[in-house]
Amino acid sequence: MSPRSPLEQLRRRLLATGPGPRLLGPRAALAHQLTLSACLLVGVLLVSDRTLGNPALYWGGQVAVHLFTLVLLVTVVVGRAGRVARPRSADLLILLPVADLLVLAVSRWSLANVMGFQGFLMAVPCVWLAAQLRYRGAMLGIGISLLSVPLGLVITPALDPVAVLSRGLASSLLVAAMGLVVASAMVRLDEHTRRLEAVSASLGVVSLVLDEDGRVLESSGRLRGASRGLDVHDLLADPVFGESGRSPLPPERHPLARAARGSELDGEAVWSSGATGRRVALSVSSTRLDPDRMLVVVHDVTASLGAVLQEEQFLANISHELKTPLTSITGYVELIEDEVAEGAGGDPETIRRHLAVVSRNVERLQRLILGLLETARTVSGDRIGSDGGPRRVIALDELLRRQVEALEPRQRARRLRVDLAGVAASVELVNADPERLGQAVDNVLTNAVKYAHEGGTVTVSLGTEGPDAVLGVADEGIGIGAEDLERLFTPYFRARTATSAGVAGYGLGLMITRRIVRAHGGEMAISSEVGVGTRVEMRIPLVRT
Fold first, then answer.
1. How much is the pTM?
2. 180: number of Cβ within 10 Å
3. pLDDT tens, 36-61?
4. Strand pairing of 280-290 and 293-300?
5. Is the Cβ–Cβ distance between 125 and 104 less than 8 Å?
6. How many of the other CB atoms lie within 10 Å of CB of 25?
């Protein structure tokens, strides 16, 4: 890296104002410069040839300042008409108030016989500098103003030095007061802005300012959550999808297009995947700043909106699951009533068959309802059972073999082989809950049997590592995509590979299982590859304290 020149280092230090609003945009700069020119034009009406000690100096200063104003006016008009972007315009504009100060520092002494009001006009560019550079700008303006005082002794040697000094110091005092007040106000505003930015960053909020044509003038903040690291402009590029995430929005319904037209949005939710393909939900709100600009606030709502959609899907699935057995029960009860009503009590064998169907559907309903109750109980508690009571020991290896044996009918139906060669004997847990732990093991084994390819192998291992028992279950099945792994423990969530394969489920088993494992002081991990299989590992302390 080549060393910077002294001039470049000075420029960087001077302009390093830190985070905070900059008032030296082209239009704001033009407002300052026009104010200064207007004041000078008014001053022309107050002077006469008798008061001009040095006409050439006076009119030269007037021409120089008005020329600066004209150049800036043309630059702003042309730049706005052509939408020309100038990244370093702020660096160039900072030279303009300095030039104004230097011109006024000299031309103020052209009014030899009256109080030099041009000296007081030095407060205008000094305020400009203070607004841009805070205390550094104020001190720069004050310094130029003070340096102009001894210059007056040189330019006007015929005047009383006391009068020159008093006139110069009076104007410098005004320049200092206004510059320091503005700098102090801007520093406080900077602090307020930093606090707002810190809050926005913690909330993951991005704010955009749009002009009347829908162009982004300003952008600040970063997204968090599922869209962390993604560019908000890329995410809000067409196409975006509605709140349901299914239908793309037409261009005229795009939230940015509506905001540009002046619509005030209140949490408009859209789905987008951007260039990365990662599907995220964004909430877009807008409000009007002024007739030409709209403020748009965007934040990530993937987790909350996804949970709502999953809950709606879950309720739809549950409604269907409840309706199916209830419809079957109702139908077979009617058949039994018809059979009995035919006289002679009906055919016992037919009634038994009908009752068997009713019984199966009742059991199905019981399992479903118990699963829902288990979810509620597991979510509401972080620990299982009581810390008190007598010490009890359970054999995890025996519990595991019993659960495998209970799954044998389903295993045979799918022609699966369960390999228990890696199961060590005499793995004992102290103070574990055998019923809840059995439920967790059953959930993992059931998933392995359900998602394994027919005719494949399910490998079960059990051993100890340090203070933990380690139980592993691996299948050679459909697997899980990397994008779904981190959401497997979300209630009601099901991996895309499972839904596309048409495998039934509610998306509750893994969440319940991890809750049970964590309630025992353990942890659970899942690794998977689509089309290859999945491995689930449960680590449970040998002694629950």
1. 0.49
2. 17
3. 999 888 888 877 666 677 788 888 98
4. antiparallel
5. yes
6. 15
